[in-house]
Amino acid sequence: MLTKKQYDLLLFIDRRLKEHGVAPSFDEMKEALGLRSKSGIHRLMTGLEERGFIRRLPHRARALEVIRLPENIGGRPAPARRPESFAPTVIKGDFRLSGVSTTASSASSVQMPLYGKIAAGTPITALRDNTRVIDVPSGLVDNGEHYALEVAGDSMIDAGIHDGDTVIIKRTDTAESGTIVVALVDNEEVTLKRLRRRGQSIALEPANSAYETRICGPDQVAVQGRLVGLIRRY
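^ thats the sequence. predicted structure below, dont judge the formating
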């Protein structure tokens, strides 16, 4: 699933390639999408490349190739199929009503909400589904509010987090440097990455050498929770 800006950028690049035979410049992309900086374009391009929609050709300036287009190319980005009770939303961190609040207990398992997929490779919009729950061993949680997310992508594979895993997240808006967190980026995309603080900047580090570390300003990233457990089905 592409974000709206990823979708718009992909169509703009494809149209310019067909019309002029050369990809638009970063300045032209920035102007077309109404972004303030080229760093936003770089982030969108990286996302499209990681998802297999474009390829950047080496040793050639402005050399791009569109590999494929979304199946619903005639319209807007297709929403994920979901029950009517689904509400597509970026995780905002307000889980006081819908997240499970746990206290120390002798119970063997607890139930918590299982929300949609979170990209461990490219940030995607997360879906919050209040109708799905998951039983989690009580030893994976402590005091506080928790929720579960399905992982999509392989950028955290060297940290033992694989595509298809379920991660258990403790709701918090703070995290120490080096912690694996759910991060809200630019108030529209969520991702699972290791957070590093570098002076006034924040780095979101993958655990896969095939992916780049993203450097963001302090106002671009909001912590939505930290990783406390993982469930894998074989």
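The mean pLDDT is 77.
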